[in-house]
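User: Hi! Is it possible to get a structure for several chains at once, not just one? Here's what I have:
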Amino acid sequence: MLSIENISKAFGGVQALNNVSLAVAPGSVQGILGENGAGKTTLMNILFGLIRPDRGQIRLNGQSVVVRSPRVAQQLGIGMVHQHFKLAPALSVTDNLALAVGRNFVLLHRASFRDRIAALARSLHWAVDPDSVVGQLNVGQQQRVEIIKALLGGGKILILDEPTAVLTPQEVDELIPAVRSLARAGITVIFISHKLSEVNRMCDRIAVLRRGELVFAGPMGELSAEEITHRMLGAPSALSSLGASSASPGLVRLHLSRVCCPLPGTRKYKPLLDNIELSVRAGEIVGIAGVEGNGQTTLIDAILGSLPISSGVITLDGSDLSHLVNFRRARKFACIPEDRQGQGLVLSLSLTANLMLRSYRNPEFMRLGLRHVTAWRSRAAMLVRSFDIRCASVEVPIQFLSGGNQQKALIARELYGNPPVILAINPTRGLDIGATAFVLQQLTAARQRGAAVLLIHSDLDELLAISDRVMVMYAGRLLPTNWPAVDRAAIGRMMMGITPQAA
Amino acid sequence: MNIAGESLGTFLARQTVQAATPLIMAGLGELLAEVTGVINIGIEGLMLMGCIAGYAAAGISGSGGVGLGAAIFAGMGTAAIFAGVTVWAAADQIVAGAAVNILAVGASGLAWFFYQNAREAVHRSVSLGRHVGFQSVAIPGLSRIPFFGPMLFDQYMLFYAAIILAVLIWLLLHHTRTGAILRALGDAPEACQAAGVSVRTWRTGAVLFAGACAGAAGAYLSIMRTHAFASDMTGGQGFVVLSLVIFGRWTIPGLIAGCLLFGGINSLQQILQTTRYTSHSTLMHALQHIPFEFFQMLPYVVALLALATLSRSSPGPRYLGQAWRQ
Ligand SMILES: Nc1ncnc2c1ncn2[C@@H]1O[C@H](COP(=O)(O)OP(=O)(O)OP(=O)(O)O)[C@@H](O)[C@H]1O
Ligand SMILES: [Mg+2]
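Assistant: Yes, the chains can be modeled jointly so their relative placement is included. Here is the combined structure:
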């Protein structure tokens, strides 16, 4: 039995957790829900010894424990899979696991590692190759390595912080039974997610945090979906209020014709683009559905020019982009990239600086060639207000914002100022229900203003909710659909590679 | 052609290994430090500190062992300053390394001055007695093997130590948890932190180890291979070590291969320099017209070319040169 008693934690002026108490029974799956910045990750970091609480205590089987460090957490049988993985990409799976368990300065017993990994993987119905290099695994496989790592040292409590945010729907479907079987084996799982449907399928009990306070804890099913959302936000969900637009699209802005990328044989790990035909007109949202890893990232890289194309033309407003230097080319698009920490944000810079990255060269933000501090500050304050970014101060490095608030900052920067062409990949990843609705509204509002929006999204429901036209990407090819004349299931089948004719 | 009673090939092989020994020794330490994410371009300075400390301590105590110990200690001590500045105070590693080089030139010059004065005050010779430094150690039996005997088994003690160390470090890096930690420190320090490993403490350990290795390599120059000290005796070898670590793509076999290659070219140029005046072949006569600085430059040119062509494929540890602030 794990019990959290009266935990409080403040960061500067922000009360991240306020007097939170929660008891979790062994062998159960405890869901934790809450909007961005509600304190979910903070609570888990406290359990795992990464953060010390200001007040309160943790009891394990009735005994009060002080989790001073992750090492201590591990000795207590607490394992955690972080929202952002903590794996060494250059090392093999075995070496990554050895990092977490074992003794120094003695030879590794690789065979015993192999057996333990195999045993765990078998019980979860996974295939994990202990010798593969972690950096070459896809995100879903890396997550499995993380979970095995957390359990390898004999972990009894497993914390999963938004594990499904990085997974494809198929991978989510595989994760859920694995977690259930862990619970059957007596392991306590704490599961954080923004998706009610997942929590529904996975959890025995749920707890809802709101602005650092526990507002509900009880068995799954005691509250209806609407009630849960209401507790989380204090207001009903707005997703349903989004309709497809009636605005008639204008001229073609972005056009891709017969684009192939890259030369066969090079960069094997990325699927090729195969004769892509795509046009996005002013005032429309073109949605691209597809299971991740079918070339969506390559497509964006090709448009932005960070990956050379082997044939075909990409034009913006009729002019060929190929002669533009990468950075000039990238500046023509507003882009919400897939990997916000790697590509979208500079983690060590302040929130203000990150918000200004697109517009710092603007004369109004410069004075004598230097940054205009007050103008920066007022723009940042305005964006923070209108995009509801929760932070202790606009001057803190952005890495200290919660995952969802980092995403909101990125979106604020990219969507502010009526950009004419918007590229967005999974723009609502890691966002809570309210923020998701907000972002989708921002995208539809941009369309209403006449922007051309290319939306690549792994959440099919959200994609269908706001797209005017829907295409499916499969194995590097882009297939048009007759949405909304075809139904969701047909699109789902195309995502699996079953073409309409064959189906 | 024979030199010193040996065939040219055997002589060259032995010289090659002798020239490569300090590079291997210092390279092993630097490789380990770089694997953990710390690049110390002050390796040249650390070697110089080892040279003077080893020479002076051997001269005063009359014992080569004390000299070697002092050299290791001096290398570690100087590396400790570097570690404090870069690992703990998060200063830029390149700038701090450059400072270490400058510091070492000053410190070793000053130490040399005091050493000379102190020796003269007690009316002792400044130079080492021949019995004080190290001599090469022939391993009975093995050293009689033609060619390979003189090359591998009639060397200075530090060469044998370096080879044993190389095997140990290779085992450590690839077959122990410690090695996984070391490699992860340069690849994903946050993974180490999550595993409860103190990034800074471990990096400090690696930097100190590199300091000890560089100090020992310095002692090799002043009290083993030669019995003399000169203020420029490292002659850029510390920088060569840096490039050889990259050349070997942060692998131990690659590093050793690079050291032997460099040592070989260096020995060859020395042989060419000395034999072109004594030989009667027309080729050697032609070579007389080339200034000897050209030959001195050759190994470095080869090192540069090798770096430019070979090192592009491997980017090295991801966090190389980056401080860890948590
Ligand atoms: N190290 C830190 N320094 C300063 N503020 C912090 C730090 N860590 C978290 N916070 C703040 O504490 C609050 C709670 O953050 P937390 O990461 O726990 O949210 P969360 O519920 O996990 O949100 P999300 O769903 O977006 O991941 C946020 O306002 C965040 O900005
Ligand atoms: Mg979080």
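The domain at 2-233 of chain A is CATH 3.40.50.300 (Rossmann fold). The CA atoms of residues 140 and 167 of chain A lie 6 Å apart.

User: Great, thank you!
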